[in-house]
What does this fold into?
Amino acid sequence: MAKGFVEVKTFISKYFSKHSETLETHQDQALTSHYYKAKKDEVFRAVEELFSSPSEIIAVSKERGEITAKYKGKRRAFVVATIIMVRPFQTAVDFSVTTESGMPIDFGFSRNLIVELYDKLDRQFPSLDQSRS
It folds into this structure.
């Protein structure tokens, strides 16, 4: 019975929310933190480029490793990207996305945006499997 409850809760949080974020360990495998074999500055620049036109970068803090942006795609969203160097040539990237909408749900848009952003980074940098680190 508990397993069924967890599955229902996961489904509801995936599609009936307007906020998604990545974590080191997440029930939704697509929303686990991604690690790349690259320098922090390279990954930081690549994440900045993800939010070039038509999106708008609101704030950049290289010291904290954060980029805050307004995503202006199919829907509008507020995105915070965190880029942290874990070790030399090992950089972690996390996202927090909140859909800007009058409705209390986004039908999975915030989750899917994170997946899309990670896909773009995965094409640029070699991924590191954290289970082997």
Summary: The first helix runs from residue 2 to 15. The mean pLDDT is 88. The beta strands are 19-21, 34-36, 56-61, 66-72, 76-87, 90-99, 127-128. The chain has three helices and seven strands.
